[in-house]
Fold:
Amino acid sequence: MELLEGSLRAYPWGSRTLIAQLKGEAAPTARPEAEIWFGAHPGSPSTVNGVALNTLIAADPEAQLGARVAQKFAGELPFLLKILAADAPLSLQAHPSLEQAKEGFARENAAGINVDAPDRNYRDPNHKPELIVALTDFKAMAGFRPLARTMEIFDLLGCEELNRYRSMLAVENEEESLRALFTTWITIPILKRHELINALMQAAEKYCVTPDADAEVVAILRNVMDLNDRYPGDIGVLGALLLNFYRLAPGEALYLDAGNLHAYVSGLGVEIMANSDNVLRGGLTSKYVDVPELVRVLNFKSLADASVHPEPKGAEVHYEVPIDEFQLDRLDVKGSAQAEHDGPMIIMCTAGHATLQCADATVELTPGTAAWVPASDPAVYVSAAGAELFLARV
Structure:
């Protein structure tokens, strides 16, 4: 067991306060701090005693990962753990399936597109299912809302320009309807798009001040209006009107599999995903947007509820997900506890101060720091007067 030095990522949507305040450092920071990566992704690996984690694993995969994980995941750590801090919305995006990622990565390699090129869609051959657990109040858009509810919102708005698209929609053909509407909106001429968005904003503002307005609909519409304030006339504003809108309290979580359109809006959270950096963007960004490729990977089935409900599991709280690459558990320690593992483990602290003991090794964790526990190590014993830890395992 060793201290794992995370890799800080600075993106424009990041926060100048959230990560700094978590770590007890001065805020605001000089630049937005968006993510701290704890993992072995070659794009920005964490380090152990100055050695990149992917290099350390490659030197002895069986000792670091264990025979089970090394064999199943080709000698690579299959997950990436992050602290994510959003002060502005992330891009409207989706991630490919494993098959799509392998095909797209090979295709772009064959085309000679540099893996770091701004117009590159596939930076690795892996999928990116992901789980986000809120550390603060957290807002997110995730998955297409059931079409019947979206049509109810259209009715409440009474927007003539919006209703011109009603002929595309039929609840009994939900998937085909959402595909037709989103594909039309993402490709309409810019003047028509601005006309539609302007009309939508006027209708939304009018509805939000209606005395008997539905509170849930008001929250959805205010989010859409805020997005238009940040990205006037952007196609992502229309896309947001079709998505579920979530307001998470600390400890609440969302899970998203391949193809689900989404965007985190604001807040601090712990995110874990398969070890990938593949993103297909559809708006709310100045980065590269490949509309045909996004539409190709999108899942147009509605997602009734992306919530993951934490479940007690001994001393830990477990977030169940339907994949093999990772599992995430929260451990609140007052006194002592034990963290077991049958593969590699990353222990990350998000509150308090914890002492980790593993054989002869001792690591002290404070918020925003983490420890790497190889598969060959025995169980870790944790002591703390009061600490919140997240355990990432395969």
Remarks:
- The CA atoms of residues 104 and 122 lie 6 Å apart.
- Residues 144-245 form one domain.
- The mean pLDDT is 96.
- The chain has twelve helices and 21 strands.
